[in-house]
Amino acid sequence: MPQLIRFYIKNCIIGFILAAAFTRAILWYNVGNLGHLVNTSDIGTLAVIVFWVLNGIVFAGVQFAVAVMLMAEPENKDNGPGRGLGVPARVPAKAKAAPQILLK
């Protein structure tokens, strides 16, 4: 199997595991009364599965995107020729005082 496919599958599995932990936390802490609703409903199991799968899709996408962005090589800190360090320069500035209006 190509390395890129293996990388994608691994990160999708990690994303679905994170989604399972998120779903469990949402139900355990009864956020939005979802835990009670799932426990008292006759189709609560299906609701949990749908909730986990939909969150798994999001978490897997985010996990893969973060993994790809972390693969970037660090930027070269050498400024190279013609890219000197910016040295601040003092530039005199002329300022005029605005007339003050006295209110009584």
Structural notes for this entry:
The protein has 104 residues and is mostly helical. The protein has a domain at 3-70. 58% of the residues lie in helices and 0% in strands. It is built from three helices and no strands. The protein has helices at residues 3-28, 34-40, 44-70.
Blueprint of the fold:
Blueprint: H1 3-28, H2 34-40, H3 44-70
Taking Cα atoms only, what radius of gyration do you get, to the nearest Å?
28 Å
Question: What's the shape?
Answer: flat
Structural class: mainly alpha
Which spans have pLDDT < 50 for at least 5 consecutive residues?
none
Strand content: under 5%
Assign a percent range to the helix content.
55-70%
The number of helical elements comes to: 3
Largest sheet: none
Distance between the termini: 84 Å
Return the string of H and E elements: HHH
Tally of strands: 0
Q: How would you state the average pLDDT, rounded?
A: 88
What's a quick, concise take on this entry?
This protein is mostly helical and 104 residues long.
Keywords:
104 residues, mainly alpha, 3 helices
